[in-house]
Fold this sequence. Notes:
alpha+beta
Amino acid sequence: xxxxxxxxxxxxxxxxxxxxxxxxxxxxxxxxxxxxxxxxxxxxxxxxxxxxxxxxxxxxxxxxxxxxxxxxxxxxxxxxxxxxxxxxxxxxxxxxxxxxxxxxxxxxxxxxxxxxxxxxxxxxxxxxxxxxxxxxxxxxxxxxxxxxxxxxxxxxxxxxxxxxxxxxxxxxxxxxxxxxxxxxxxxxxxxxxxxxxxxxxxxxxxxxxxxxxxxxxxxxxxxxxxxxxxxxxxxxxxxxxxxxxxxxxxxxxxxxxxxxxxxxxxxxxxxxxxxxxxxxxxxxxxxxxxxxxxxxxxxxxxxxxxxxxxxxxxxxxxxxxxxxxxxxxxxxxxxxxxxxxxxxxxxxxxxxxxxx
Length: 356
């Protein structure tokens, strides 16, 4: 602030005039709000210079008390106004400087807020469900910890079948220390038996879920994987119905241009049985590591329900027929999105997951 001349009456008193000029010098030198506050304390504080002057009036001779009291109060009033003005001006300057330092550069790119999303495998399962729900199927579920009866016996799997060995199936040890009845299901097919036990035909269901097998992890295998099992039981169901259903599904999932083939196969609970392959989208049928050089990738197994299965659930094998199929969700994801390795789905690598 600019230094003002000493008012006439104050100039007549050497002590008050010098105190006035000292106040102006200190205020002019104060370059921050804390410094201005120091000046306030130095002059108007409990032991400040102007406060001490006014407190000392009682010690003056009577003829000086009135004059010094009037001029002292005048100096105090000026000091208060000057300090307030200086503080207000300094506050405006500091605010302006802060705004200048913190100004937003709207030309800079914004910070994107990352959003979560559903895992690709969950999206594939939902897409499969939507396709079959559109065909009139219902979605059913069953337990992942299953009994040998539902996982093998009721699915027409004999005791000697190699899939029942400890090298292929995760059995759960019972209190006796042996492995007999309880296991982690090797497929979602046990849900078929459970549904048929409680539901009379006609039956059009799919059962998505996890399955577990003693597979060595590689580009197309995992000890834990996802399946979607399908079952149809009704009057007059034929192999043509099975083929038409799966052709419709594969075209809906992979596009009308994708090639499909059915290969004869064997499953204990279907007869006749087949595997369905789709042309490899990664190599366009030329052969690669994922399709093992064949140009094809198997996505599901299927077949007509073996009449022996109906005996376990009380269905009349003479009046109904049906088909079943089971597909690997991971393999469908591999094929549809050209992901080269099934293990990527379980690594939780955000660089992959953010793409979907």
